[in-house]
Amino acid sequence: xxxxxxxxxxxxxxxHIVLLAALSLAWQNQxxxxxxxxxxxxxIVDISDAPRTPEPPKPSMEAAxxxxxxxxxxxxxxxxxxxxxxxxxxxxxxTKPSPPKPKAATPTKAPPSPLDTSxxxxxxxxxxxxxxxxxxxxxxxAKELNAAAPARATVDPRAAATLAQAIRAQVxxxxxxxxxxxxxxxxxxxxxxxxxxxxxxxxxxQAGTPTGMTATNADYARAFAxxxxxxxxxxxxxKLPAELYxxxxxxEINFDPEEMT
Amino acid sequence: xxxxxxxxGLAAAPVLAQSAPLRVDINAGLMQPMPIxxxxxxxxxxxxxxxxxxxxxxxxxxxxxxxxxxxxxxxxPIDPAxxxxxxxxxxxxxxxxxxxxxxxxxxxxxxxxxxNPDGGxxxxxxxxxxxxxxxxxxxxxxxxxxxxRRAAHKCADLVYSRLTGESGYFDSRxxxxxxxxxxxxxxxxxxxxxxxxxxxxxxxxxxxxxxxPRFAPGQQTITYMSFENNxxxxxLYTLGSGRQEAVGAFTGMTFAPRFSPDGQNLVFSMAxxxxxxxxxxxxxxxxxxRLTSGxxxxxxxxxxxxxxxxxxESDRGGSQQVYVMNADGTGQQRISFGEGRSASPxxxxxxxxxxxxxxxxxxxxxxVMRPDGSGERLLTNGYQDEGPSWSPNGRVxxxxxxxxxxxxxxxxxxxxxxNERRIATPLDASDPAWSPLLP
Lengths: 261, 439
Hints:
The complex is a heterodimer of chains A (about 260) and B (about 450). With about 260 residues, chain A is of the alpha+beta class. Chain A is built from six helices and four strands; from the N terminus they run αβαααββααβ.
């Protein structure tokens, strides 16, 4: 108990004694307000492709009809909402919840317009923090890289490091890791990405199994891996020197929030 | 939201074999609320319900869901005025992902509200990863027309848990002490409301002073302290019936009650002969055991989620500090050693932290520490921030904030220390307790 609580207990006790002296009986029985109508039960049901049928008034989902009995709703416990695994439910249309593995470098439908999401976000909401990255001068980068890696086959590690730095600078601003989660510090995930020559992601980036994933934090691990995949998908196309495409056509990005507070 | 170190320099230069893919390490990102679109849910049919048309309910459900997600601080619902596409019944399952990408929505929630022949409704809830162009969750909720709000909270919980990997907390309630009147003649009533402030109701009339309400795990029952009949002692309130009963027939004053995680026991303080100790009371058998002894005030007991330990406050060492003991009272040890005094500890439902009130320098703040006392962090610092209570998922802390004028209200803060926000109450408010998720 905090001192203020103690004070209020003492104060209230005194007040009650005074009250008792002043008033007589009758007040002692605490009046009950009408018992609150309690939370109405909600039943969890699986849903199929319901919204297709706009008209019929009867529930087009396979929903058991609701008990309308209003009596003692508190007593009957509605089943706890169990998150439906996305793949347990037939996905509606061609979209698949799990990332398909892009094996071949088949060009996907590119997004309709060149998308700079960071610019868009700041257009929509000025309060969004802007990524503090300078526009990348790819010509300069290419020059540096060429100087560092003149050979055709083998690559100077410094060139690779510079390239990795360029990719990091462009993807990191789009990574929004779920910090505050219980296991965030122990988790890392590698996302394999294939890029086309214009810097666009080909197919769906593939996230590996996060390190630190256990039976009890599988949901968190999935959400964590998806933030990494989302970062790759949001921050594209990459601006990288085309002449070094052989080096960055396929990239493994290791997402590790070790420096986040 | 803070900008967190973006680029981390040339750490660990990647080694590149000719055939191996380039390896890139990203060690930090940008922490910001995720932009999410929650367009009005489409009417599944044209019928009307007691609570309104399906069209109206669809609009209100989307607002409730967006409000829930916004309140978490982890999501930023996009203003519907920015939408470039509408969501009719045919778009619920086939969203126009490119259109949502152009307004930078990273996630999308769609749904329908359908009136059922029995007068109830079915709310269907779908969540999408916009950039992956994929559905990630779906769930239907069948309820009475009046239950549309709960169904919307459950949809918000589905979205929150799918995108964060943590369990949700929006389908929950808050019980607290509503206060009004002059400081010397304060009227205090138990009140209950949904976590977003909707559905506010008073539970007691205010004739007797009440303090420290706490939910039972099944949340049909609330335990609290009342001065009824001028005898300060612990009571139980059954929500379904409104029935109130005093706990036990103790001679001493009993206070600061809390349920055990299995709901079978209460722990509380009892003052006997000038000494205040912690007792455990079995609700079914009425068996009572004393868990602490010795001089000083031992109070504010709170179980660990596994029921094995109890954290409490004691001034046995000269000032209020936080102690932990086994559930049978053995192994008592002090865990708080920070500056000032530490009071009203509460164990997080996920077990990883203990929240407490830090008192010092004329101020009260809310802090957290690990169950072994390490990693102490202050989350708030106010004139009088006190009485922490955890959200059901252990992510958010609710507390009472008082000011110099004597007014007080309910506030919440994320465990990261971010997203401090006020929860509106009709009158002054103190002593909040967050319920578990509704069954």
